[in-house]
Every structure is written in C-alpha cells, then in structure tokens.
User: Which sequence fits this backbone?
C-alpha cells in the first residue's frame, strides 16, 4: 500500500460517514446554499436559508425576486450584495435555459452567475450523486499538507486528487478532508500531536 493509499484508508475509516454540512432538500436549495457559503460558515448559511427558501422555494420564485429583498434575507452571510445579485441571476438563467431545473453537468453549472468549479462539484456530488471532489479551503489545505496533492491552486489540487483517489471515493473523501480540516488540521493551529495521520503527513514531517 502506498503512502497516499494509507492516508485515504485512515481518512475513510475516521470520517467515512461524513456528509454535507449544508441543509437542503432540493438541488436548487443546495446550489443557493453553496453560493451563500463562500467566505461564510455552513452554520451561518443554515440559519439564513430557511426564511429565504420559505419565501423563494424554487428557481421560478427566486427569479422574480427583487435583489434588494434577497439582500435583506442573506445580509448576515457576508458579501450579501454580490451574492444576492448572483442568486437572482442564476435563478433567471435556470428558468430561461434549463426549464427551471438545476442542470447537472460541470459546463452548464459553471455557466451560471456565481457558480465556479467548487460550487458545481458540491452540487454534482451531493444533489445528483455524481462523483466529484469540490476543493474548498479545507480540502486545499489538508490535501496539500498531507501530500495527497502538491499544488499551489485549487484547480491543480482537484486534478491531482482525482488521480490519487479512486473515483468511487471522490465524494466521500471530499467530506472526509473537510471534517479533518475542521476538527484537527485547522489553518492556524493544527492539532498535529493528536492527529492519527501525523506519521504519514508531509506538513508534520517538515515542521516537527
């Protein structure tokens, strides 16, 4: 077993049941929640979205919303003006181009306002069950510290993780890396002495 395979096995054994931290009941709700999650915690997004989706439950309803009304509902998520504009614009595009249904290809999703590869991958994986690795700040940090990737940007990290991780584990590993980043491998003060991966970790070896 290679070092990368050992790391993957330990992560899966530790966090194999981890799921998406955003609350949603439809692909549309997940898409909007993921747009809101940029530079914002999942906890905060989950506080904001119930009132938002009660008023605007689907793309058709959201496409008719006043941007200023959406701004007020999502104000506490940060960058609310830009997010509100993107949410309404994306909803209009979903109705005009995709019959009111959230598309399920990378090309179609990233054509929407405010939707980059990370957001698209979250939707593909969690809403549609399509294998994908969304590289957020946790996944980027943890995968490069561990040595699963060796890249200086999220795009290269995604490509390297796709090669290192069996495709059937992409979605599960995305969640595992996030939870490891939240619980152990934090940005400023990683708990290396408590980490069950320290013996395999490139970052720990370089800094111990």
Assistant:
């Amino acid at each position: 077993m290679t070092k990368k395979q050992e790391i993957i096995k330990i992560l899966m054994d530790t966090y194999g049941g981890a799921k998406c931290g955003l609350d949603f009941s439809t692909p549309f709700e997940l898409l909007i929640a993921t747009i809101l999650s940029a530079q914002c915690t999942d906890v905060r997004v989950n506080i904001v979205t119930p009132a938002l989706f009660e008023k605007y439950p689907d793309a058709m309803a959201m496409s008719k919303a006043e941007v200023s009304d959406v701004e007020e509902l999502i104000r506490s998520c940060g960058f609310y003006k830009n997010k509100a504009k993107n949410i309404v614009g994306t909803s209009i595009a979903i109705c005009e181009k995709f019959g009111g249904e959230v598309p399920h290809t990378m090309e179609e999703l990233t054509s929407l306002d405010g939707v980059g590869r990370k957001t698209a991958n979250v939707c593909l994986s969690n809403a549609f069950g399509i294998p994908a690795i969304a590289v957020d700040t946790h996944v980027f940090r943890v995968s490069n510290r561990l040595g699963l990737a060796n890249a200086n940007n999220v795009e290269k990290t995604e490509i390297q993780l796709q090669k290192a991780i069996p495709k059937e584990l992409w979605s599960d590993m995305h969640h595992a890396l996030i939870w490891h980043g939240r619980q152990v491998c934090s940005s400023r003060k990683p708990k290396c002495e408590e980490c069950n991966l320290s013996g395999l970790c490139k970052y720990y070896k370089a800094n111990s």
